């Protein structure tokens, strides 16, 4: 058994390394990804080993990074782009939404754009403004993009390689506050499909759906709930577009109750889509409305308030209680 | 390459053709351009050959007639586009009228292995690259959003979001460098587009990575209703200098100058010196698109002034004066134009609407569960009408 | 009674004119808004009457337009920005999301940014790519912005003035395919609040919620349903952020059924938010899950397919039937 | 204006002060700068006054001491920022170490009615504008995202999204023109920022509208780990030319030159000639921020080379050599620095966390139903703990 324990960030590094090794068309590009190895050191050592030609420090211009990545993909490359922080993806939004997402359709399939956009996202690290946001709904709404987020090292390792192997553009949301969390990675395993949800904990009273950084929090909530005699099933969604509704549906048909948890603001967030669709699919099974726990309709607050802003154990359990009270 | 292109594009610049039209005698007679000294011109509006110290060109009669033919046929099917729009066959048509020299000249400077990234008005470039005109018209008819295979002619899809393609061109050029190839790229855009951040960023990336890309700006004086002064207070070719690469302004209605300058620019990029900017100074003779009404914002006088500088007229005068083309040539070209118009017209009129299920195709290369679900639901929904109909 | 019949586009023109007259700080800016009067002629004649200093043709750069509008607002102006078409707002997305939306909060309220961004949106006009999109969810998700859309001339007239008067940034979505629809405008009336929904048609069997261009379609659907003996209540939402959930709730408590209709793709669309929240508010009243009718998870299709893509009478009535069948 | 600023900012440029320090004799002795002729310098690293044909400056001893004091105090509280971060009082601190002259010099060139749009490192500009240092530190402590009132000192909030503020500055300047005022604006940004589309677009808008804005680029050689060559292959001041306005490179470690050049640039903009670009050639002596580890990407040698060009040192040498400041001055300034550090430290340590309900405030000026709902729900949720606690 080849499993190694490694931090989530390290698992991504290893995954990038493997991809760079296996396919000479894979490129890593972004601000400070070279010598510095990225502000989170996720690309640490890669430029040293693969050269400046494949691990590329770019000018400070996100639209330029994504736009030239598209051009590189048109030339046959598979660029993996790093956006330094969630809040800095917006200058590239036009290129992502109007070009990256739509070019395959515009060309009636004759063009493929295997571009991965890595975005360290989410809060909980005490950062200044624009460094703690969760913009996934703004990408998942857009057809032509796929959006995924690993919650643990093993998924980070495999999902990154699958994203790079995908012929579609993938927005790869990295749960930055979990970068340092260690987990087992078995590099010889055969991974499941990229867009399949995972039942992270089985339970019978209520289903909790989360992805990325919130999975750990929800597992903790489930453990706490168990002590109070409540059996929560936790689903790690893994993919926000497409969403594996089948797995969620199967769970909700069993438990009859659903709470969706994410850091992003609830209003127009992914929880809305999950609630709407699962309610439609499980209308006769639901004993309570789908409840959502997430950020408020407010700019991400200054660091000293983020504990209050972010969904934590208490707020999740409060919603669990409310759902169970129906 | 399709049959209608004048000549197969060569793999190398066609510099060594043997039969030359400008004999030494002629050369001696060539005058310096009268106008703006910063404007590269090789053929005056009156059809006189002039020399430019930095840009020589020496074409065979065949090549000259070929350029003429390209411009005439481009104008012909472009006019057909306008007509077809009037007749309701197209939703919209952006005419290139007046910009034939800029497009044909620059495109003829390219090699087969070079790549063109157009905006939405480069019908002349498309023509030279061998893209069948019908293919261009599809998106303006509303049957697709582009849909030709960019790689079959190294001619990318039309890009409507202004300026975006400049970055794609730059990235593509960066890829060429990585491949160790000596191909080059032309990014086409307009005077209006020069204001977009994406264009500036493409200048930065191209300069920093020494990417082999020629930025070819057709300054046709207008961005819909806005004159170029709303985009810049100095000539656009100067923009490049601040990014550390050369810019040059060429008479965009002079096909010889456009060819010579673009050729030199492409060579510049191939030699590893990085990008170059060419500003083709030209004029949009028609409306912005068939939806536009230019009488609301510009004087007809202005247009009339530019008529005297017509790119086709001046080459015709030159060909006639030099005896490089006879009446037969012009007559048969007229027939060819008519035939091309007819061909395009028929192709459009018989162009089928896409199947409605096409909505669900080509969204993802590797599929997407929701698309599958929506496709199935839609099919079931459509089937329900059929059932009801039974 | 001072009511006049005028086209929706004309009502906006008049409203802008009135605002320019009443407040010398109001500016109109965008591409081609001057001599041309905009590609839809919405600003027709304004530059002639108010001068180039107040009705400003800008360089072709949307980020620049919004970014300088922010600066002008900081200087005390009230810019009304035109984005030429829905698909061209994305180059400005960064300025809208990271600056316009957040600066009031960043300054702890010491800065106000009364900027209106007009976006002609939606399909149905046979246009080429990028000219028919409905990106409202991408703005409504973002705290700090308000998003509204009139469905008729009178609302267009009043809501525009209210948006300009608002001290918050407002994204004003103009239903371009209804520009030429005429309606009564009473310039002496006292308008209701900007963010209040309107019951456009009363009914008892099922509630239909729509906004902007879809209101008319839903009214037609309700008329058609009435012929089949089904009484639909149609709510014109008018505001996508905030959403007047109270009005929708009251209606659903009465009818027990809800269908939400919009042109935008359903996935992560505004219908999701409405479905999720109304299900929570009306759990015991709902006889059927909230159903959504909208665009598919696909780039807006070429014009020859848009009739199939856009929600029309049949698709709305199909969902109504499905909801009533529960 | 707060008391700590050296001198009240005048409503007009202080050109007519009477007591001048450079006597004719001194002037005659002044040398031409030895280095890059394109680099404007008035005070060499060795502390020698040199003349520049285009940029004269003539300051009183008071004013010179004032500039010195500004730089020293800025450096002092900046160092305090680093210390406080190490001690866990701040989450982050971006030190301006090495850039004091660029910031103090440019800011001292401004009038009260001018407006500064900083990025996130302009502590020296803030100081001169009279913003209390504690206010700057709040956002790095995480108690707010800025939060000072920009209008009380005409100093806008720090902007973290690189390049955005250049457009705000330009729009603000456009408003000044509309108002018929003769104020001006400075947009501060870095070498890295020069690559952002927003900065290019601000150049375009400012040029087209003749907006009174000085683009002040502190080229501190690094954008985090990337050297300036990753942003441009030519000096950044040249960027302006392609947009049709002048650019100049100034020794960014020379406070006199920064003052003189910025003053001239501001005058240029006031005269209705539109924008100007100033590139202050300087060096970021410290880490990018306290989170950064520069040993990963640059040699200590480089830093050492720049130490010899220290902006404070050279002015001190000059003051001493010219007898313009005595030991008392330096001693009391040291005390003042210590006191300022202490004041900032205490202010930070006693800075209260915001009330949690502040999350729901100031999102909208006119309110928003959902915010009200969420605020109420949160309050009820919080109250439920209190109840349970009972
Ligand atoms: C980002 C963006 N903004 C606005 C438009 C609408 N639009 C289409 S063409 C055009 C003018 C383009 O002018 P120019 O770049 O000079 O090209 P030309 O049409 O003259 O060839 C505008 C504003 C667009 N297509 N994309
Ligand atoms: C749009 C955007 N992208 C990335 C970042 C992350 N980032 C913060 S500072 C910085 C480097 C800035 O360099 P420069 O403009 O030279 O300013 P300096 O820090 O040297 O003062 C980067 C990449 C950001 N803040 N905004
Ligand atoms: Mg143009
Ligand atoms: Mg820097």
UniProtKB/TrEMBL annotation, chains A, C:
Name listed for the protein in its UniProt record: Alpha-ketoacid dehydrogenase subunit beta
GO MF annotations in UniProt: magnesium ion binding; oxidoreductase activity
Record-annotated Transketolase-like pyrimidine-binding domain positions: 6-181
Pfam families: Transket_pyr, Transketolase_C
Xref: SUPFAM superfamilies: Thiamin diphosphate-binding fold (THDP-binding), TK C-terminal domain-like
Cofactor: thiamine diphosphate
UniProt keywords, alphabetically: Oxidoreductase, Thiamine pyrophosphate
From TrEMBL, chains B, D:
UniProt keyword terms in alphabetical order: Oxidoreductase, Pyruvate, Thiamine pyrophosphate
Residue ranges of every copy of the Dehydrogenase E1 component domain listed in the record: 69-353
GO MF term (any one): oxidoreductase activity, acting on the aldehyde or oxo group of donors, disulfide as acceptor
Record carries keyword Oxidoreductase: yes
Disordered: annotated span: 1-40
Keyword Oxidoreductase: yes
Reported cofactor(s): thiamine diphosphate
UniProt record, GO biological process: branched-chain amino acid catabolic process
Superkingdom of origin organism: Bacteria
Biased amino acid composition, Basic residues: 11-30
Name of the protein described by the UniProt record: Pyruvate dehydrogenase (Acetyl-transferring) E1 component subunit alpha
Gene source species: Streptomyces coryli
Lineage, uppermost ranks: Bacteria, Bacillati, Actinomycetota, Actinomycetes, Kitasatosporales
Gene that specifies this protein: pdhA
